């Protein structure tokens, strides 16, 4: 398989709050229109994405499989838009404000995540996770979201919101002992050819540049490992301890201990991965990722981050905190300062991302038109194209259907199985979609060029309207 | 960060020469002014019972 990373996807668990209601009550209200639409709290949207209620009453959005970073970012923003539109609708019904956060922890210390999926070749995948660990431990230098951590002994600003919730490098567990990489083998594809690398150590990023880096750089490292780069020299003595040391000790650039006994600064590890990634970089999106990565690594060498505040979440957030404290004289642990950091991760009009992007204080690379389109349209170059079109056509026809990552089933027809995530043109699936489109009465065939079928459901449900709202309104 | 475009290609250089960037000090001052504007905009949100709001955000753990 070439390139060595196929499709990519993001699963985001969102936090919700509408006191005095519990998170569970809020999430159920948010999902009432979803249940009415799809008879389940687990549905696939016309964009081919999965929208569901996960453990811990987290509304969750798993983006459609994306081949390019541009598609992935647009899909990610579409998920934010849908989540905010669901919350806005629930707020109207509840008669109170509903806050939605794309962050990683609540006030009680619970953690939730932003999970990354990478389609990789089955062959050679055995040694991949270990080769990635030193990279993932130090990736927070660039991709950390930043967090005010309040302890009995005081408050401090740490780089990563997830570091303190990680207790293993690799395992198949998720909620009890969170690993950096979940090794559960669920390829959602042809298991003889592919694996799905499931990275759950990352922070939820608001900055599109940070998200692009997180997925772009990790993909390049996977490619470098596939091309024979060994990172054994950077194996850590204790990765779990190291990830916390990097997060807590960033101001002093505290060194971490390697398995061979050496102590190195975290930025040296990032530099080694960066140079290997640079050797395998090829396309324009790689160049953009490498460019940001290099500027960050250089910044960390000098401990001078000037110019990076518009790209890195931990810096953008820190700059807001410091200015707010300068103006107010409040301590770091003051609830108003904490509230400010929650607003950084909040969706909707209270959230800071839109304001920061509008003021050019945060890089915004995705055209809002692309984000709007991604609410209802799948990426055109992966099998999500087929899933999205199928869902749309089956709904328009009022047919009984089911869909998941690998399977499309219409009524009594035999299921169509899609085992290659990078294949948007499976003929059996296209035939099925055309058949169901014909059922809807106008006989319009689904075109292979990405154009949508003109017909929509005869009666719009609340969730259809919520999706329309999401397509028309940034989160 | 360079633009990530749908084509996957970095932007080509514009034919028009770009305006010279403002000196760093002036740029920092402008950015601080813009940050102040944003902080002013959400001042009410921060004033309005932040402690109760922060305490009230309780989820269960996710993955």
Task: Explain what this protein looks like in three dimensions.
The complex is a heterodimer of chains A (475) and B (63). Chain A is an alpha+beta fold and 475 residues long. Among the domains of chain A are: 121-345, no CATH class; 377-468, no CATH class. Chain A has helices at 23-38, 69-94, 128-138, 140-143, 208-226, 239-248, 266-280, 284-302, 313-328, 335-344, 353-358, 368-376, 384-397, 427-439, 462-472; strands at 5-13, 15-17, 42-44, 50-54, 58-62, 99-101, 114-121, 147-151, 154-158, 168-171, 179-182, 194-199, 256-257, 263-264, 401-403, 407-410, 416-417. In chain A, helix 2 crosses helix 5 (208-226) and helix 2 (69-94) crosses helix 15 (462-472). Chain A is globular and about 65 Å long. With 63 residues, chain B is mainly α. In chain B, 48% of the residues lie in helices and 0% in strands. Chain B has helices at residues 24-41, 43-47, 50-56. Chain B starts with 23 loop residues before the first helix and ends in a 7-residue tail after the last helix. At the A-B interface, strand 2, helix 2, helix 5, helix 8 and helix 9 of A face helix 1, helix 2 and helix 3 of B.
